[in-house]
Amino acid sequence: MSQAISIYLREDVIRRLDAAVERCAAQDRAQGLEGRQVTSRSKLIERIIERYLDGEDPKFGMKEIQYHVIDLAKEYGAAKVSLFGSYARGEATDSSDVDILLEKGDIRGMQVLDFQDELSKRLGHSVDVVTTAGASERFLQKIRKDEVVLYAASRA
């Protein structure tokens, strides 16, 4: 049996919640779900609360990050996109940002910032993008220790 409750949330939390609902609903529709099967606000809130009560980490996971990275990488023409840092190591906290290593491919100039902004918007979370062209070899070696490749363009 379900029971309705009222909760008050800050506007920024509501915006993040709605962005997460849109992401989940898009994934649901891509899997062929429709109508009441598609994630709604109440379904997502219930899922988050259940995960919390069950002791699970309610943060989004690598699969959700990869889903959006693949979509954007294809759209922008990236050669390779990897995750590094706390999310790649499975050590992310609420204050962690999503660290992305980008091999630009066809991406030029300010499009790197557009890629970063769009990924941040889709995840509803802070994203930092480092390009392979803009990083020192020493820094790249450090990153590669926990690098998880999320997307690599097929070489034709």
From TrEMBL:
Gene3D superfamilies: Beta Polymerase, domain 2. The keyword Transferase applies. Residues 72-154 form the Polymerase beta nucleotidyltransferase domain. Transmembrane segments: none annotated. Keywords: ATP-binding, Magnesium, Metal-binding, Nucleotide-binding, Nucleotidyltransferase, Transferase. SUPFAM superfamilies: Nucleotidyltransferase (SSF81301). Its cofactor is Mg(2+). The keyword Transferase applies. GO terms for molecular function: ATP binding; metal ion binding; nucleotidyltransferase activity. This is Polymerase beta nucleotidyltransferase domain-containing protein.
